[in-house]
Amino acid sequence: MHLYPVYVYVVLFLKYALAIGDEEQTKITVGAIFYENEKEIELSFDQALREVNNLKFSELQFTSVKRYMPTNDSFLLQQITCELISNGVAAIFGPSSKAASDIVAQLANMTGIPHIEFDWQIEATRQEHLNHQMTVNVAPSLSALSRAYYEIIKTNYEWRTFTLIYETPEGLARLQDLMKIHALNSDLVKLRNLADYAGDYRILWKDADETFHEHRIILDCEPKSLKQLLKVSVDFKLQGPFRNWFLTHLDTHSSGLKDIYNEDFKANITSVRLKIVDTNPYARKKTRLSEVDRILGGQMMLPILIYDAVVLFTNSIRNVVTAMQQFYPPSSDCGARFSEPWIMGAYIMSEMKSISEDDVEPHFKTENMKLNEFGQRTHFNLEIYKPTVNEPLMIWTPDNGIKARKLGPELESSATATDFSVQRKVYTVVTHYEKPYFMMKEDHENYRGQEKFEGYAVDLIEKLSELMNFDFEFMIVNGNGKYNSETKQWDGIIRKLIDHHAQIGVCDLTITQLRRSVVDFTVPFMQLGISILHYKSPPETKDPFAFLDPFAPEVWIYVIFAQLVMTLAFVLIARLSYREWMPPNPAIVDPDELENIWNVNNSCWLMVGSIMQQGCDILPRGPHMRILTGMWWFFALMMLSTYTANLAAFLTSNKWQSTINSLEDLIEQDEVKFGSMRGGSTSLFFSESNDTDYQRAWNQMKNFNPSAFTSNNGEGVERVRKEKGKYAFLMETTSMTYNIERHCDLRQIGGQIGEKHYGLAVPLGADYRTNLSVSILQLSEKGELYKLKDKWWKKHNVTCDTFHEVDGDELSIIELGGVFLVLAGGVLTGVILGICEFLWNVQNVAVEERVTPWQALKAELIFALQFWVTKKPMRISSSSSSSGDKSSRRSSGSRRSSKEKRRSKTAS
């Protein structure tokens, strides 16, 4: 009852106070906590409040109560926070991440006072979020920033191997997503803490260069430590060309790298910072810059973020006050047990999480300000730039990823420093001697430097250097690169690329999955396969008397001797047989004399006709003569059959090497050993293939003794030539074609096995790989690659004799030439004997017909040439006019008498 008048007086007082407040601005007090040496942050805080107050929106006027922390003392921080709350502050800004305790967030949560952070903070757990419900942080959350770094490194830079180096726990949190690219502490991702090398950073850089062979380093350290770290790294060539650094601290640009930047820094160094809202190029520029203008213009993270924090809170509370139409100042106290949280605090927190950056005034300094439900800033834009020359490169946004940075006129004019990382580079090209890819010139003594070398690879690198504008030098090793399964180490070209001792590997380097696990390859510059290299025996000299080869010389002698003996025996036995004596004229029943037709001529003709399977027009009559003839026929049959069989086998037999026409034929035989280069891509193809024939071939190659493997292709080619058909070599078709073109005693067996490609090898993640691939495609489209291959494969001075090779049962004219020679010899002999007989007959005619030899020759020759005359008169020579018919009859009679005399002599 007594309290009622008091209540009336209080209500009347409040109405009077509000009426007075309507005529004046409402004053809102905010608190801020700073540590020592945070003058830039404090100046930015004050500048933000001044700009907000100068806007005069609504009727709000902001004042500040600032407290300073000399040391990191949690108890002192609690006292200062409670003091600010008791002073009626509407919000508390800070402190920075130097505070080791979250006492400010807990007290703010208890009293309902908004707490705005602007520095890195290790993200709270779900339980801790319950105690931080009145806290927001305008600094990018570490998890969101880590995801941004992951996207930059994985998607844009395409780094697959690198070393992570961090200094603080916050730095490690910023790198947490990068550690997920590959397993931690593997050969691809290494993690190191700067605290472990605090005594001497040279040990760290020595390990990075000599042990890790690292060319990509991601470093997260405080700006004050950065200059010294990078300066020491110069001594270990970590700032040389083809080295890449990514600095993750958002204040890297304030570290003063430009002070130590010189021509020793040829590495590609990039970093990120919060993207600042672009200034209006048409806005009026200040003629004199204050200290706070220089601080904000330097894009230092904490001063800019506390500026945005002030803008965020002031615009949020303005919207809340406008909606509620009045301001209820807080009256909380840390010591009050039953005090209620400030009623407006929750509304302000909700507004700060949902306010649009387009609705604030003045505008934020950083782009894309958005908070999640826990008050963490998950949206922000990052600018990727070169801190050594302050050159913006790209922009990262959470929604659109990475895109190129469009430079304004001011930025283009400001980038005046020399960028040593983009100057013409010298590439180390590792290769090995292998024809025709890389060779010494024949007169290399007359040249110096790179001019001593020639080959396909040399010309290819020269053309690429012209397109990409780089210089190069060659490094020569022993081979392409073989993997030792016991030591798990590579050698040759691959080893040099893994160790980053070279930038490009070129030769007959096949792209395989095993090699791609440790190096990267460009697009192929040559397509090929595997085939079989074998010895091509020189053609044997053809023997025109090859038809005699089926029988040995002594056999021929025995055959001729047997024929002579059989002829004489036939003549003798025929004369002893009474059945073989027959009358000369069958019409005479009782002749005075008998004749025997089996003289030497007829007997020899029967022997020859029998062995030639032609028979004879006369045959014996007596049984013993027929037995003798039958045995000779049996002998002739056996000899002829044997000769025919041997002749066919001899003339149509193929050489044993011609029966190998494919890999299957090679597997099925056991005369020829075959192998490949030990540890090369061809061996790998057969060893890892699931094909049955390829596995059989691989097992046979492994079991040959002595070993069928060679150390290089050249050794395999020489072994094929040396063993002359007893060894076959499996190799790439390109190298095989080159050797076949230059060695006439080599040939290819079968077609192409599988499909392979040659490419340029580069270290994993090399940023110039794409440019090399594009340049190779350009050379291919222009036909330059075809011209290079034609130059080094086809153009040479070796000319091989060409021979007509026959297949199957086909015989050449040379092999059957002896048969034609025998025929020609027999014909010539017959013709000569015929001429001799003709001349002898002319002489006899001349004597018998009493004419001159010339007249007889003329008459006989004219008659012989009259082919249409089929009947020959007894007297063909013309007689003289004086002799008349009488002499003709006398001559005819004398000729008949002389013939009868000769016949009687023959019968006797």
Features:
7-stranded mixed β-sheet; 8-stranded mixed β-sheet; 908 residues; 43% helix; alpha/beta; single chain; disordered N terminus; rod-shaped
What's this, in brief?
By secondary structure, the chain is α/β, with parallel strands linked by helices.
Global mean pLDDT: 83
| Low-pLDDT stretches | 1-23, 879-908
Task: Kindly state the percentage of residues in helix.
Answer: 40-55%
> Pairing-aware structural class of the strands and helices?
alpha/beta
Give the C-alpha Rg. Answer: 56 Å
Query: Quick one: overall form?
Result: rod-shaped
What kind of sheet is the major sheet? 8 strands, mixed
Query: Strands across the major sheet, in which order?
Result: 7-6-8-9-10-13-14-15
How many individual helices? 29
Oligomer: single chain
Number of strands: 30
- Content of β-strand: 15-25%
Give the distance, in angstroms, between the N- and C-terminal Cα atoms: 194 Å
Task: Give an overview in words.
The strands form eight sheets. An eight-stranded mixed beta sheet has the order 7-6-8-9-10-13-14-15. It has a seven-stranded mixed beta sheet with strand order 2-1-3-4-5-12-11, sandwiched between helices. Helices cover about 45% and strands about 15% of the residues. About 30% of the residues are buried. The chain is rod-shaped and about 180 Å long. With about 900 residues, it is of the alpha/beta class. The N terminus and C terminus are likely disordered. The longest helix has about 30 residues. It is built from 29 helices and 30 strands.
